[in-house]
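Lecture 7 notes: from sequence to structure.
We start with the chain below.
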Amino acid sequence: MANPAPLATPTDLNRNDTKSVADALNSALADSYALYLKTKNFHWHVSGPHFRDYHLLLDDQATEILGATDEIAERVRKIGNTTLRSIGDIARRQTIKDNDKDFVAPADMLAELRDDNLKLVESFRTVKDAADAAKDNATSGIVDDWTDQAERRAWFLFEASRKA
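Predicted structure tokens for the same chain:
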């Protein structure tokens, strides 16, 4: 069997620069998957007097996070690089910590997800810096939308967890 040809995706961007952008995107993608799964975990396991509201909020947020993952991965490919391939690859790159506890109080769920969304914002800022340095205008522009979405999720989680 012959070795596959290297990627030759057409781009006017410098290949070394796109590698740093792809690395930042893949890190943000791993964090997005970790956050998606944690959000779904909490969606499945939330309980208490605000169950319905939290259950629906977390489902909406998980759907939004998952929707961004395809855009992130496709951006990596558009600039001529490879993206994540497995759960193991995600685990090696993620900075957002998993939560495997049998029980998490609803208020703690919201606080943890709020902080994790803000950590994802940090990942997106790293992408923005790498994209700007590489003169990758498309990545620089689209990461602003992902940042805004994560900030909005953090805000909703903050407001939903405030005491009356």
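Points to note: The two ends are 66 Å apart (CA to CA). Helices lie at 15-45, 51-78, 87-93, 106-133, 137-161.
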